[in-house]
Each structure stands twice: as structure tokens, then as C-alpha cells.
Amino acid sequence: MTDQPASFRALGDERFVSLTTFRRNGAPVPTAVWVARDGDDLVVITPDGSGKVKRVRNSGRVELRPCSRSGAVADGAPTFAGHATVTDETGTAQVRELIRRAYGFEYRVVMLIERIAARGQKPRVGLRITAV
Question: In the chain, what's the furthest Cα-to-Cα distance?
Fold first, then answer.
């Protein structure tokens, strides 16, 4: 485990990170997500009601590792401990804008495909993650 704040912030430069949340029984659940930096914090956006949101609301304990689009984590990739909170409506709008800026065209394409496939836009929330 690494606890260097600069290295934690550098995760905001990755294309994808594996965000691991924890079930009540302590079992880890990793998910590949987009990430952006907001000052010293990292932010992600995710559908409201998703498992990771429920787990964050239960316990803000998370771990982050750089990963591929498919969620594959390289051998020896550093693990960073963090604490996540679900943002309010204003915070979610800020997170959405940070992610949109970071991912540009890719973000717009994915959101369009999701809207078509889901026949509407899924409500989303932001997660703000601080290093611990």
C-alpha cells in the first residue's frame, strides 16, 4: 500500500482506474471507472443505485489501482487507499463536467449510446475520493 498524496493525485491522469468498494462482509468488488482530478481529490461518476454507490454509502472505504479499459490491473500496480463519499446534486454536476472535460468525445459517445440503449438517461451521482 502506498500513501503518497502526489501518487494518489496522479491517478487522475490515468484513462481508467479500478475502484474497489467493499461489501458488508468485507469482500472486495473492483470496477473499472473513468476518473478525473479535482484538486487533491479524485472523482468518478456512476449510475445512482449501482452496487458501488450502495457500498460507498455503507462504508466509504475504497481502493484504487490503475487499470485497462477492461479492468485488468498490471502485476505490481500500486494500490491506493481512499475514502469515498456520494456527492449532492451540485457536486454531481461538477463531477460530470470534470469527467466530460477529461474524456471529451469518448464521454459524449458513451452517454449517447447509453441514452439510446436505456431509452433515456440514467440518473448519475458523483463519488469524491480522498486519500487516506
Answer: 43
Q: For the chain, what is the domain count?
A: 1
Say if strands 28-33 and 61-66 run parallel, antiparallel, or are unpaired. unpaired
Beta bridge partners of 43: 36, 128
pLDDT at position 1 over 60: no
Residue 84: domain span: 5-131
Q: CA-based angle 8:9:12, to the nearest 5?
A: 110
Q: How far apart are CA 76 and CA 99, in angstroms?
A: 27
Q: What is the pTM of this model?
A: 0.90
Half-sphere exposure of 31 (CA within 13 A, CB side): 17
Query: pLDDT tens for residues 10-30?
Result: 999 999 999 999 999 999 999
